[in-house]
């Protein structure tokens, strides 16, 4: 299996900061058809599962524009421009969004967020023995409340849709696998 | 926690068929700031994990524009416009993309694809005792090859990045949980 499309034209439809939305007009290399594909370009993302010594997950509640609802997610964010090391971004985002820190961050894996339409990956980390060390440090556009959830309630919250973000669920299932829950 | 933003203006940046990309200029209700948020609007999606009686998963290989690579995914697709029943879409997409069918489709759950920037959900199904019943029925823009993967090789393929799509990984972890693997 290979790429059967030749890009004839790329149009930048939208750009804001590090996000671009592009449309590519393509011709098939075997069949006499052309088609437009779009893609979103981002930097890579990180998701962190902070677990306290009391076996609780430190989660974040925030309003999300995509679904016009408040969600319950694990902390996460985007790498800075030019930043190569996702673990550094994970430590920063964990501290900024929650005020928690951990002596070590354990890699749980990575995934391509949506290969059909997006170019980026999300890196997943477990932050064991996470401790509250200082206040949150949020951007002016962010409103984030913390919610501390016992590990043994995670499955129920997923099953009932109270945890619904696909990347958060993936992070939590990876963490459960790692912790052999 | 509630919504602290008031939408002042919505701009349709891009629309093609059932996909829209919108930008919303918003004002914060508590602080004197305004900010533009964008969102992608899709119909809902389905992902299916077809498992044969030989304990193999029927997967699809296809070129994906977002990451400019060929991926190994579970079959899936989008609901038709006006279609309310995801299980019907799951049966159709399974049959069209793979030529396989199953007497029953078992719900594994659903997830919001990306609440920050997208409005839609993905519904996950297990198709047990999946059988090849006819040839694929692909759109003119689709080139999809089948790859049949033993269930006990799934973890290795995820760990080594050969299976990388976040929604495919989520579908497979849900299936493993259901099958108690």
Structure description:
By secondary structure, chain A is an alpha+beta fold. The first copy, chain A, has 2 domains: 37 residues; 134 residues, Nucleoside Triphosphate Pyrophosphohydrolase. Helix content of chain A is 18%, strand content 43%. Chain A has 3 helices and 12 strands; from the N terminus they run E-E-E-E-E-E-E-H-E-E-E-E-E-H-H. In chain A, strand 2 and strand 3 form a beta hairpin. At the A-B interface, strand 1, strand 2, strand 3, strand 5 and strand 6 of A face strand 1, strand 2, strand 3, strand 5 and strand 6 of B.
* Poorly predicted spans of chain A: none
Helix fraction of chain A, binned, reads 10-25%
Structural class of chain A: alpha+beta
| CATH class group of the largest domain in chain A | Alpha Beta
At CATH level 3, the topology of the largest domain in chain A is: Nucleoside Triphosphate Pyrophosphohydrolase
Please count the helical segments of chain A.
3
For the record, the count of structural domains of chain A works out to: 2
Mean pLDDT of chain A: 96
Structural key phrases:
homodimer; 181 residues; alpha+beta; Nucleoside Triphosphate Pyrophosphohydrolase; 2 domains; 4-stranded mixed β-sheet; 3 helices; 12 strands; 18% helix; 43% strand; elongated
């Amino acid at each position: 299996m290979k790429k059967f499309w030749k890009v004839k034209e790329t149009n930048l439809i939208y750009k804001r900061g590090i996000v671009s939305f592009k449309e590519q007009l393509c011709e098939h290399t075997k069949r006499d058809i052309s088609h437009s594909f779009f893609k979103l370009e981002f930097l890579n993302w990180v998701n962190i599962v902070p677990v306290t010594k009391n076996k609780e997950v430190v989660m974040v509640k925030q309003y999300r524009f995509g679904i016009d609802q408040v969600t319950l997610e694990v902390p996460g964010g985007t790498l800075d421009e030019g930043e190569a090391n996702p673990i550094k971004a994970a430590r920063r985002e964990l501290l900024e969004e929650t005020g928690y820190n951990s002596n070590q961050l354990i890699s749980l894996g990575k995934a391509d967020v949506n290969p059909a339409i997006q170019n980026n990956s999300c890196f997943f980390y477990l932050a064991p023995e996470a401790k509250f060390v200082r206040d949150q440090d949020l951007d002016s556009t962010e409103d984030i409340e913390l919610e501390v959830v016992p590990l043994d309630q995670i499955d129920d919250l997923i099953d009932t849709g109270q945890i619904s973000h696909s990347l958060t669920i993936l992070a939590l299932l990876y963490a459960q696998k790692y912790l052999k829950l």
